[in-house]
Amino acid sequence: LNCFSPSVESSFLHCSACQPPVRNGAYSDNAVGAVSSTGCGESVAKVTLARNVVFYMEQGLSPQDAVKKALTVMKDRVDSLGGAIAVSKTGDFGHYFNTKVMIWASVQNGQLHYGVFPGEDLVTTC
């Protein structure tokens, strides 16, 4: 899983030592699943967005519902936008974003699902 918001740092992507470090935007727990998020770094940190997604999955929500709930909480608490993708330990996938666009993709059972705009789910065979 990966979400990346390009910045000045992205001009140095040819150098592995110059890769942006993973901060608050990613979280995983082998017993539950993993998530990667993007958005305003300060807002993502304030609400521990990625950790909350995994927490909601621990509580029984699907990755899709967990991602949506965590981003709704972030919007309500700090009035900020973002997006996230998550996968459960069983391979269930979810994504949600409350921004205008977010590039996302997942592969499962030989099918590539991808999109850019809200509600978009394009499918092709791998």
TrEMBL record:
Which InterPro entries did the record assign? Ntn_hydrolases_N, Peptidase_T2
What Gene Ontology terms describe what this protein does at the molecular function level?
A: hydrolase activity
- What's a single GO CC term here? cytoplasm
Q: Which domain of life is it from?
A: Eukaryota
Q: Which SUPFAM superfamilies match?
A: N-terminal nucleophile aminohydrolases (Ntn hydrolases)
Do you know which PANTHER family this protein is assigned to? ISOASPARTYL PEPTIDASE_L-ASPARAGINASE (PTHR10188:SF41), L-ASPARAGINASE (PTHR10188)
Query: Could you mention a single GO BP entry for this protein?
Result: L-asparagine catabolic process via L-aspartate
Similarity remark: Belongs to the Ntn-hydrolase family.
This chain belongs to which protein, by name?
A: Isoaspartyl peptidase/L-asparaginase-like
